[in-house]
Write a structure and sequence with these properties.
With 485 residues, the protein is an alpha+beta fold. It contains 9 helices and 27 strands. β18 (328-329) and β19 form a beta hairpin. It is globular.
């Protein structure tokens, strides 16, 4: 078994970062003993530790690759041995973290935080055991708050959760505001509230007068960063559209992109297209670009296909006039309801067991329709699952474990009293969408009876959709896609 790129214990690396590497080794060791044994493995599982700049503060996430074979072995076990594997992994993770003697351990909203003396922490979101799903790996992150920056004003990034990740806990709650205190007395107290479509923060630094920072509600991704120690906007008052500079103790330990920059030159040589910065980033990270036009007049989306013999190859997925469905796709046989949902809504509405064309390995994923190319697209369950598990709130509504589990299973949940970008309340059925590469909201008209945000199971997206249903068309037919998107 090969241990992937690891977090090295450099002088400036945080204790949490070092613990992350030890946990990765411990999990692989347990898997070797419990599942693999002496059996040969063609594609060994490995772990990598990567910067996640989308989290605030920026964190390093422990991620596992090549897990399909391990999950297949796990699924073949009877129920009791599966439980034993889960318990062994859980115990090994906690034992390894505690070897570094954290100064404080807190659990909040199904998230455990192990705090160390160097102002760093390991966040553990442990996957619940599910008898109807394969082995899940826990979400583990290394966090540092030596330079505490708080993202405020972004409705899709709740400030409350960010304060929690910085080591704060709720101290006093009133109708208009919440006061948060830090486990470290040297950190300022934070008062936080929302009124008149503005976020209001009062920062109480020791030896200084309280300072109030007010920020208007903005679009997702355009919030503003507040330096808590100085109680000022990092951007000087203008909306922040980029992420802050990552602390030098949180340096990435693997390459920032999945594929080398040389593929951009190959795209220009092979298809005579010059990609925008955003499309280049998508391509090198294994995603599809927007629709581009090649030198011979073809239009489509570029993506990278990993081939066993020739390595990464560029593929153009052409635009088609209309969606054409065969009886099966990647090993999944479509039911009539599956076909109807794909044609009408652009998503199948449930998770499916699929087979990777290149490796032949099974995986679970969501099937949808790329609205730009009118071709099928797949969102792997192991890509969206960690994001759902890390969510504590969605549009201002608290998510419980059952609701998150149903989303992961491809089912719809009803959430009431969510807050839109404009600050108005709304209700919707929420589900995973392969077509949108994330969550999809099907709004419920005002006057429909509320369900108090409870989870509502749905094996078909057609039962609850109210604002979808038109099948778009493209101008002309192109050649069929060459491989699994």
């Amino acid at each position: 078994m090969h241990v992937g790129p690891k977090v090295t214990a450099q002088a400036r690396a945080s204790m949490a970062q070092q613990v992350l590497d030890l946990v990765g080794k411990a999990i692989l060791n347990e898997i070797r003993q419990l599942l693999i044994g002496d059996n040969p493995v063609e594609e060994p599982i490995r772990y990598v530790s990567e910067i996640d700049s989308t989290s605030q503060p920026p964190s390093i996430e422990l991620r596992f690759e090549n897990t399909s074979h391990i999950q297949d072995l796990y699924q073949r076990l009877p129920i009791d041995p599966q439980i034993n594997v889960y318990c062994a992994l859980s115990a090994s993770i906690r034992y390894t973290i505690n070897q570094y003697k954290p100064s404080d351990i807190r659990k909040e909203r199904e998230v455990e935080v192990y705090i160390f003396n160097d102002q760093s922490a390991v966040e553990l979101i442990e996957e619940k055991y599910r008898r109807d799903e394969p082995l899940f790996f826990p979400v583990l992150r290394a966090i540092s708050w030596k330079q505490p920056l708080l993202l405020v004003g972004d409705p899709d990034c709740p400030t409350e959760m960010n304060l929690y990740r910085l080591g704060y806990r709720e101290a006093i709650r009133t109708i208009e505001t919440i006061l948060y205190s830090h486990y470290d007395p040297s950190m300022p107290l934070i008062g936080y509230g929302y009124a008149n479509r503005q976020f209001h923060m009062t920062v109480f630094n020791q030896g200084e007068s309280p300072k109030v920072v007010s920020i208007a509600g903005t679009l997702p991704g355009t919030g503003q960063f507040v330096n808590l120690r100085q109680a000022r906007l990092v951007s000087g008052g203008s909306p922040v559209t980029e992420k802050p500079v990552v602390n030098d103790q949180l340096q990435p330990v693997v390459v920032e992109t999945r594929y080398p920059d040389s593929l951009l030159e190959e795209a220009n040589r092979q298809f005579a297209v010059e990609l925008t910065e955003e499309n280049a980033k998508r391509l090198l990270n294994g995603q599809k670009t927007d629709v581009v036009t090649t030198s011979d007049g073809n239009t489509g989306k570029l993506y990278v296909l990993n081939t066993p013999d020739d390595g990464p190859q560029l593929v153009l997925q052409d635009v088609q006039q209309k969606l054409t469905l065969k009886e099966s796709y990647l090993g999944h046989i479509f039911s009539e309801k599956d076909k109807a949902n794909l044609h009408k809504y652009g998503d199948m509405g449930r998770v499916a067991e699929l087979i990777d064309k290149q490796s032949g390995q099974k995986f679970t994923g969501f099937i949808g329709v790329d609205k730009d190319t009118k071709t099928l697209t797949v969102l792997r369950a192991d890509v969206i699952r960690p994001k759902i598990e890390r969510m504590s709130h969605l549009k201002g509504v608290t998510l419980n474990g059952l609701q998150k589990q149903r989303l992961i299973q491809g089912k719809a949940i009803r959430l009431d009293n969510m807050t839109s970008k404009a600050g108005t309340a709304f209700s919707a059925y929420v589900r995973v969408s392969a077509a949108s590469r994330g969550l999809r909201f099907d709004h419920i008209p005002n006057g429909t009876s509320e369900n108090n945000g409870s989870a509502t199971a749905s094996d078909s997206i057609g039962n609850h959709d109210t604002n979808q249903g038109k099948t778009a068309t493209a101008p002309r037919t192109k050649r069929a896609p060459k491989a699994n998107p």
